[in-house]
Amino acid sequence: MKLITVLAPLIATGAALSIQTPLLAVDDKLAVPGNNTLYFCSDPSNYTLNVTRIDFDPRSPKKGETLHVETQGILRHPIVDGAKVQLTVKLQIGSALIPVYHQTIDVCEGEDDECPIKKGSITLTKDVELPGAIPNGKYAVNIDAKNGDDEESELLCLNTVLTFG
Ligand SMILES: *[C@@H]1O[C@H](CO)[C@@H](O)[C@H](O)[C@H]1NC(C)=O
Ligand SMILES: *[C@@H]1O[C@H](CO)[C@@H](O)[C@H](O)[C@H]1NC(C)=O
Ligand SMILES: *[C@@H]1O[C@H](CO)[C@@H](O)[C@H](O)[C@H]1NC(C)=O
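== MD-2-related lipid-recognition domain-containing protein ==
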């Protein structure tokens, strides 16, 4: 299941050193439960995945180390073929946010990823290797997952800011 794998390509571009206060205006009510610095993009009440918590270990990832991510939640509906994650990374330069990386990930494509993924409790774990060489900067990260149904229902949408260097 690739929902969490979305962090990996980000790391491949040059990985997280520390995760700090978001650049984007955020509402504490949208803070994702658990030991992390993620925010929901909007009221998550109707997201297909009801996230009960996401834990980062360590909470502030370091160069050359492994970031362990554990996500727990409840799928309100099955995840069906066509589900996609859009990962967008923007670099802050002055007051501007410049897009530097974008990737679309097919959630159901890949050897271990059988869809539909049935509704109910789900736990996803992912170890992400953080390379030693990282371009310095402050990056706004958006992870937007939509289900493969006709309405392209919002599966999950998260924002965070990563500071490299
Ligand atoms: C999400 O799941 C938890 C645990 O079952 C539940 O308490 C909570 O009400 C659910 N949230 C929503 C918005 O459905
Ligand atoms: C969630 O869905 C219900 C039923 O469609 C709707 O009434 C409600 O406004 C939605 N909530 C949000 C936050 O979108
Ligand atoms: C968050 O995780 C770090 C290590 O991953 C741990 O040291 C810290 O105590 C945790 N904080 C909370 C509030 O659980």
